[in-house]
Design a protein that fits this description.
Layout (H helix, E strand, L loop, with lengths): L9 H21 L1 H10 L3 E6 L3 H13 L2 E7 L14 E3 L4 H4 L5 E4 L8 H11 L8 E2 L4 E2 L4 E2 L4 E2 L4 E2 L4 E2 L4 E2 L4 E2 L4 E2 L4 E2 L4 E2 L4 E2 L4 E2 L4 E2 L4 E2 L4 E2 L4 E2 L8 E2 L10
Parallel strand pairs: 1-2, 1-4, 2-3, 5-8, 6-9, 7-10, 8-11, 9-12, 10-13, 11-14, 12-15, 13-16, 14-17, 15-18, 16-19, 17-20, 18-21, 20-22
Length: 254
């Protein structure tokens, strides 16, 4: 009696192998972002963000694009959030910082700052009392001169420019498209908002806010805890605590 052989020929084995490889390549291409994220995130330092509002969303985009840190979660005072912020989990409230510090060492303040500077300052000072690291974040789409100085906990967002000789202090926000010109000084805890211009040699003292599209003349001083409204042109120095909502009438003197 003859017996049929069911041994697979080399050609069939090779064909099956090629088909398997093709399917694997299709799957890798389909899920490339996920695979890339899983591979690279294991090499990044973990970081916890503090503050889950609109500014946090902007910070997430910059942090992810910069690529140095893997965001492990967000803390926020608002208990009613109860849902992920973009793709990141809400881990708890600000009171959980010390507990999380047992596992994580990098923290970053992502609370915004417009009228009120105190929350960002309070959180930054609290982090400084703990054994944590507070990084400086720079968007790869921004330009920071190698001759400029940036303090810890500050963020330079997309398309912002910090020119040579400029000095930005700790815990500052240099928002999208802002321009900090040569030799300008931005002291600690300031927010230079979107498309604002701080011209050369100007000093913006601590805890001040410069609104979107505002322009500050060269060589003057903006005092502590000032608020400058959107689109305002500041032509003369301001005393501490000033609120400037409107541009002054321009004269022939420049």
């Amino acid at each position: 009696m003859s017996h049929k052989s069911y041994t697979t020929t080399p050609d069939k084995e090779e064909k099956k192998q090629r088909e398997l490889e093709r399917r694997v390549l299709v799957l890798l291409k389909k899920h490339r972002p996920l695979v890339s994220s899983l591979v690279t995130s294991s090499k990044k330092e973990a970081i916890i963000l503090i503050g889950g509002g609109g500014h946090c969303r902007s910070c997430i985009d910059v942090i992810e694009m910069e690529g140095r840190f893997a965001i492990r979660g967000i803390l926020d005072a608002n208990e009613s959030l109860g849902h992920p912020i973009l793709t990141h989990d809400l881990l708890g409230k600000e009171e959980d910082i010390q507990k999380l510090n047992k596992t994580y060492r990098h923290f970053f303040v992502t609370v915004g700052q417009i009228k009120e500077w105190a929350p960002r300052v309070r959180l930054y000072n609290y982090l400084k009392s703990l054994p944590v690291m507070i990084p400086t974040i720079i968007s790869p789409l921004a330009h920071v001169s190698k001759y400029a100085v940036l303090g810890e906990g500050s963020i330079v967002m997309h398309q912002a420019i910090v020119n040579s000789g400029a000095h930005v202090g700790n815990n500052c926000i240099i928002n999208s498209n802002a321009l900090i010109e040569h030799d300008a000084v931005i002291e600690d805890h300031c927010h230079i908002s979107t498309a604002a211009v701080v011209n050369g040699g100007t000093t913006v003292k601590r805890c001040s806010f410069v609104g979107s599209n505002a322009v500050i003349r060269e060589g003057i001083e903006v005092g502590e805890a000032c608020i400058i409204g959107a689109g305002v042109a500041v032509m003369h120095s301001l005393q501490s605590g000033s609120l400037q909502k409107y541009s002054p009438l321009l004269t022939a003197e420049f």
